[in-house]
Amino acid sequence: MGKFLPDNVVTNDDLAKLMDTSDAWIQERTGIKERRHIVKGSEDTPATMGYKAGMQAIERAGLTPADIDLILFATLSPDYYFPGSGVLVQKMMGIPACPAMDIRMQCSGFVYAISTADQFIKTGMYKNVLVIGSENHSGGLDFTTRGRGVSVIFGDGAGAAVLTREEDTSRGIMSTHLYSEGAHAEELSLIGPSTLRWVPEIMEANDPEDISYYPYMNGQTVFKHAVVRFSEVINEGLEKNNWTPKDIDMLVPHQANLRISQFIQKKFQLADDQVYNNIMRYGNTTAASIPIALTEAWEEGKINPGDKVVLAAFGSGFTWGSAMMVW
Prior knowledge:
The chain is α/β, with parallel strands linked by helices. It is about 35% helix and about 20% strand.
């Protein structure tokens, strides 16, 4: 496991200087106290942050970049429209040739990437897979009162994991469970710029009331669906592996909103030491949130060999998924 976070800490009070909000308002609705933002002009990008988190994971695995057979890069904020950020990481690592794939599943991206890596490993096609989740949200948020419902939530950062083949089938990834429901695609979305609405069209319109190039979120709808889908996909994983909630040593949910995590914790009757949350410090880092939280939980000694670990995510698409692991 590995992680990287920008140095720039942005508190709720900092945001209150830019928009009509307050520390109490943000904490009550999201549980967030602060987040990290990339400073304009910084060298940090989704690819460079992913590279730094990935190198830490590779070194901790006792490997070198040359040992990596496949790079999976989960993000909703790639460095460029194209090429993907995965090949940029490959370039930074000096790997002359290996497949590198971007996975665009937003908040569920890391779970989807873990599942993809698991399949490639189990089929025997690849042995060592580097999975990265990395996001730069701050460069594309509306830091005015108009955008506060979204902008106070998101932060920047990267997390990574190296997955490798394990002959002992009593540990590792036991199962993954993935879903999407495109009927709600626009409820959490960024409509433009896109191939439907290129940048020159937006610039030509020059409409100050046009905010389609900022993220849109129907918060109430997202919350209502999230608590249902989180529960369903966790239950499916438990049933698949004949586990009960009491068997969970650590649940690492996507850090979307502390209120969602608390709802799920209460629903499954989990103790505080069975759930890891760090949204208070970093906000929602989308595809990076689970690997950052998983890395920190392991670094803090809260995950140990033999522990049953559950990852669960829900986000734009709508997409959702879970991964059941024995550490």
